[in-house]
Amino acid sequence: MIFSRRWVPFLKAHLEKTRHLPQRTTWAARKLVKEKSLRKNMKSIKKGDKEVARRKRQQTRQESTEGRRRQMRPWVAILSLALVLIFSSATSSLALERLKISSTTSTDNSGLFQALNPPFERRFNCRVDIIPVGTGKALKIASNGDVDVVFVHDREAEEKFLSDGYGVNRRDVMFNDFLIIGPAADPAEIRGMKDAKEALRKIAHAGAFFISRGDNSGTHKKELALWEKAEIVPQGAWYSEAGQGMSAVIQIANQKLAYTLADRGTYLAYSGETDLEVLSAGDPDLFNPYGIIAVNPARFPYVNYVLAMAYIGWVTSVEGQGIIREFGKNGLGEPLFVPLAVP
């Protein structure tokens, strides 16, 4: 016999009438109760299946996340180590005291600071920052209180810097000399002349090309003083102001086959890169002394005066003067500077 759902209402009514007689419950009624129980059990099974599926998905996600974490652990360790090293380096750099020096391009171009500064930096655990410009600009920077030390070669301008109250404790450091250099052809015929004034007169009268620093540097001021002694105002197509540092002017003169005034240190440092030759030297007027001055802490209280005086003491010490004395001998066969503080 096939049980049809359309009998359910009638069976319910029958059960309602016979609920006081459960022992006489009909087969159809028992079938209905069994069907209801089955549906309830099926719902429970479905609910259980969903819960199992949910837990399985959650476990899969957890396993996937843990797998990614295991893969990233080595990279996290490497990144952490890199950050520690960077932070340590930055902290170390910040811990270093800094000494700012404005100096001439001739001193910097010669490479002297690369030999003179590292031992000082190691000894005093500091960093020396060089600002290479012409002497006039170097003194101007120092007079604004933007550096701690000025290292230049124009005694007259240095004395004015001191008398104006911008600097203190000047010391003589070293010297070399100026040279008149030019092309091997020597169109002005000044080769071997010791009188610098006369050599410049011959260059002007011949109309031979001459390249001037033109930057208010110590070299430029020396050149202008020599023209004045020669009673010549340099002008015309043969005379050109470069407005550049010493090494750049030597290169320009070399390209144009021109004469120029150069300090011996820079000329020797670049002698392997130029065809220009020394044509006039030895005049006492070509003497080129260098001095070092601490910026006045009474005028600029924020300057690093203690480290500035330590540096001045270093370059004028026996050890510092020894470095200056030997500098250039190995590569060029002769020193580029002669020490003055400890001859």
Largest sheet: 8 strands, mixed
> What string gives the helices and strands in order?
HHEHHEHEHEHEHEHEHEEHHHE
Into which percentage range does the β-strand content fall?
15-25%
Number of domains: 3
Shape: elongated
Output the radius of gyration.
45 Å
User: What is the class of the largest domain in the CATH system?
Assistant: Alpha Beta
Give a quick set of tags describing it.
343 residues; alpha/beta; D-Maltodextrin-Binding Protein, domain 2; 8-stranded mixed sheet; two-stranded parallel ribbon; 13 helices; 10 strands
Give a description of the structure.
The protein is of the alpha/beta class. The chain folds into 3 domains: 89 residues; 114 residues, Periplasmic binding protein-like II (D-Maltodextrin-Binding Protein, domain 2), CATH 3.40.190.10; 110 residues, 3-Layer(aba) Sandwich (D-Maltodextrin-Binding Protein, domain 2), CATH 3.40.190.10. It contains 13 helices and 10 strands. Strands 1, 2, 3, 4, 7, 8, 9 and 10 form an 8-stranded mixed sheet that branches. Strands 5-6 form a two-stranded parallel sheet. α8 links the parallel β5 and β6.
Short description:
The protein has 343 residues and is α/β, with parallel strands linked by helices.
List the helices and strands and how they pair.
Layout (H helix, E strand, L loop, with lengths): L7 H10 L9 H69 L1 E8 H6 L1 H13 L1 E8 L1 H9 L5 E4 L2 H9 L3 E16 L13 H11 L3 E3 L5 H12 L9 E3 L4 H11 L3 E4 H6 L7 E4 L6 E9 L9 H11 L2 H9 L2 H4 L5 E2 L4
